[in-house]
Amino acid sequence: MNLIFRVLTVPFIILLSLKVSADNSVDTLALSQTTEWRALLHISTEKNSSQIESYVDDSKFFIAADGYKNPQNELLATLNALKTDSAIQCRYPARTAFLLNNIPELSNEVISGDCTEYLNWRNRLNTKSVVLVFASAQLNSPSSMYGHTFLRFDTEEVDNNSTYLSYALNFGATVPENENGFLYAAKGLTGGYPGSFAANPYFEKIKEYSRLENRDLWEYKLNLTEDEIDKMLSHIWELQGINFEYYFFDENCSFRLLELLDVARPGLYLTNNFPVTAMPLDTIRVVDDANLIADKYYRPSILTELEAHLTLLSAKERKLVLALSEDINVLLETRFTNLPTENQQLVVDSTYRYLRYKNTFNGRDVDITRRSFELLRYLNKNPTDLDIVIATPTSPDQGHKTTMVSVSVGQDEKNNFAEFKYRGSYHDLIDPLDGYYDGMSLNMVNVSFRVYENDDIKLDKAELLNIISLSERNEFVSPWSWQANITVEQQWTSKEEVLVTQGTAGRGVSYRPLNNSYVFLMATGRLEFNRKLEAYTNIAPGLHAGFIYYWPKTSFLLEAEHYQFLFDQTKRSRISFQQNIQISDSSSLRLSAGFHKVDSKIHDAKHFNEVKFEYRYYF
Amino acid sequence: MKKLLIASAMLVSTSALADAPGSQTCGWGNMLFAGQSGTPSHVLAATTNGSTGNNTFGMTFGTNGCSTDGTLTYGGKEMIDVSMIMDEFSEDVARGNGEALTAVAVSLGVSEAERAHFEATLHNNFDTLFPSENATTEHVVSSMFSLMKNDEILAKYTV
Question: Residue A176: how many CB atoms within 10 A of its CB?
């Protein structure tokens, strides 16, 4: 019998002892105000007593009718229930342990119960360590663009490569099956879905993220002690079948997991770090700052593995992979058989991976299945000595932080200016790349003001949302790249600057002409509300092209954009250069220059230039 | 310890044997082997960070329309439901190592010292386990058990 089991059974054995009336001098008010009790009820420690309300939105969770807002009543009700109902201690093992710890004489009054179900669950989990798993951001799914976190519970033997069998605990919205991503996002923002915890074997999560969504996983092993794990698991049991409201930005997966960590190690106050939003990536940092992380492990996705193989191939071999993926008889052709054995194996291995990747969602086509099987058999008969090591990239928690302020000096068509910018989140195309994916830009709430030499102050731009997602096309894959943004911004219209509201969406293609670069071209559509145009509501089709190059600490972006309003004859064109230079973990310098032209039927073509030198600080 | 490990690996009640292996209507994307069928409609549930698991902790783990609970019994012996990891398992057997292969070994209780032997035995008998792309989970599991029974080291893990 293992230690955990013994530790767990002790309180229940104690409960069997004779019932003796407890001393009633217990200060239940003080006890109900402790960090531990509040954490068990999911009540923020930051609120004072008149405002408190539990994050749990499920009356099943509370014993007292007003337990969700009165921790003392809930404590009294729990005490009372423990003395009258033998099922309570099995239903609330964490509360029971807390109360027994603080009120030793209580053990004489608690009715003994048969907690076999709970003890079996604990015994089956046999948890020796807890891992916080971060599924990296995937822009192409609006609901997962900030990443996702969940917990994994490992047994003692897990180091021997058996995490497949570990127990994964996920907090998520309970979403109807056919809900689309955008509806999800909308409802998710407003608490339209109930959220609850769910359990899976870890291999199901690996399939879900690594195989179906091509998201790399980061596994952060936590340094929780046996006692802390006991607290956490006994509380998790209390949350079985309990509903929370799910909010995409704050009360999301990450927030709930922090609450569990607050239960495990009272006094961390992790949740207090997130009064407004809890971005999964930031919660990892908070956990790291609280010194909870013992170790981290990178699990590349199926696509990352495939790409790592493809980059080892020569141009000829890449052609062979494509040919072999279409026709198994290529194995017999001299262009294949003439290759050195190692290269043959690499070609076959890459082809197998490519075929599986490409057909993930394509049903079970007879020919492709046959070919995949032949390739697998070839791999079996020709075992490879190649050990393709995928370099571990900088982990997401080591990247630049997700909020930014910046100060710039510059000159535009009006005057010299100083600019002040705040960005709520989180990374643009040329921000320091370590810990992030290249070709992705996700900005929410990005506001800049300009103060001019003549003391004018102007809102320059307020971005509600600005996303650019570049996905490379090559001979193997042909994904779409896209962009979307909604902003309030200054636009030169009819001889003056006008504050307009606009939304733009675009779709197109990206390639990598060189390593560490992207070139992209997108067709765009712009909807602009502008009181100085002929009509207030205007639509402008256009084109947006760009080239990005990434060096280790600096990156360069060249862009050209042109669009023309459909009814009004106004056209706007822009060419801009930007260079970002990282100068520390938390700051960078950015130089940008823009050349603008506005054509209109009511004035001559207007040209103006803008240069800016910016200091960006990430925090 | 071994027993506990198996038990913990199962995470489920012992009344396994839901559907016959290979006959489920569940699955994750397209599978090389017929053990699973493709059901793209489940993909969305996965992409929304939604709760696709079972929120009765650890009683049954069937998800996404799968009626299985992640384990099955074979000849009275409990093990991981291979049909849920057929693609990964077949690939690992072909290569001779990998997490799916380890998971099967661990779920059968194969000791760490004998795991390499288990892996090699399966690897060398890929053709027996996977005679064609139409191999069913049932065939794979039963041939694995006969291979093990005929191996003096592995025989003890089949009971």
Answer: 12
Which of the residues B49, B99, B111 would you substitute to probe the A interface, choosing the one with the greatest number of A C-beta atoms within 10 Å?
A: B49
Classify the complex by whether its ipTM is higher than 0.90, answering yes or no: no
Distance (Å, whole) CA A523 – CA A543: 5
Joined tokens for residue A541: 């089709």
To the nearest whole Å, the CA of A187 is away from the closest chain B CA by 12
Q: What angle do CA A442, A443, A446 make, to 5 degrees?
A: 170
pLDDT exceeds cutoff 60 at A284: yes
Tokens 């099956």 -> residue: A177
Report the candidate in A237, A228, A15, A240 with the shortest Cα–Cα distance to residue A119: A237
* Dist CA A214 CA A300 (whole Å): 9
Query: Among candidates A94, A49, A96, which has minimal Cα distance to A72?
Result: A49
The pLDDT, as a whole number, for residue A188 is 60
pLDDT reported for residue A544: 98
pLDDT at position A49 is 66
Q: Is the pLDDT of residue A15 over 80?
A: no
Using an 8 Å CB-CB cutoff, list chain B residues near A2: 1, 4
Nearest to A363 among B30, B58, B94 (CB): B30
The 3-state DSSP class for residue B52 equals: coil
Buried b (16+ CB within 10 A) or exposed e, A570-591: bbbbbebebbbbbeeeebbebb
- The beta strands (E) that lie in A402-480 are given as 404-411, 416-427, 440-452, 457-469
B36 touches chain A (CB under 8 A): no
Average pLDDT over chain A, rounded to an integer: 88
Chain A partners within 8 Å of B102 (Cβ): 160-162, 164
Q: Which of A188, A198, A283, A199 is nearest to A245 (CA)?
A: A188
Sign of CA dihedral A533, A539, A540, A545: positive
Contact residues for A284 (Cβ-Cβ < 8 A; gap 6+)? A132, A134, A149, A218, A220, A396, A397
Identity of the amino acid at A108: N
Contact B82, B104 (CB under 8 A): yes
pLDDT for the residue numbered B2? 40
Q: Please spell the DSSP secondary structure of A67-120, one letter per residue.
A: TTT-HHHHHHHHHHHHHH-TTHHHH-HHHHHHHHHH-GGGGGTSPP---HHHHH
Which segments of chain B does DSSP mark as H helices, in order? 2-10, 43-47, 86-95, 99-107, 112-124, 126-129, 137-149
Rounded distance between C-alpha atoms, residue A329 and residue A332, angstroms: 5
The minimum CA-CA distance between B46 and chain A, rounded to whole Å, is 6
**pLDDT tens sequence across A477-493:** 999 999 999 999 999 99
Contact criterion met (CB below 8 Å) for A236 and A9: no
Q: What span, in angstroms and rounded, lies between the C-alpha atoms of A106 and A492? A: 75
Question: How many C-beta atoms surround the C-beta of residue A487 within 10 A?
Answer: 18
Q: Give strand ranges (E) for A304-434.
A: 404-411, 416-427
Does B11 contact A199 at a Cβ distance shorter than 8 Å?
A: yes
- Beta carbon pairs, A and B, within 8 Å: 212
What is the spatial distance between Cα A606 and Cα A619, in angstroms, rounded to a whole number?
A: 39
Residue B10, pLDDT score: 35
Query: Which CA distances in Å does A131 have to A191, A384, A480?
Result: 28, 33, 35
Whole-number Å distance between alpha carbons of B97 and B91: 9
Please name the residues between 2 and 31 in chain B that touch chain A, using a CB distance below 8 Å: 4-5, 7-12, 28-31
Q: Do B95 and A361 touch (CB under 8 A)?
A: no
Q: Which domains does chain A have, with CATH numbers?
A: 3-112 (no CATH), 127-299 (no CATH), 313-381 (no CATH), 399-618 (2.40.128.130)
Helix axes of A253-264 and A226-238: crossing angle, nearest 10 degrees: 130
According to DSSP, the residues that pair with A135 across neighbouring strands are A148, A217
Closest Cβ opposite residue A157 in set B40, B51, B106: B106
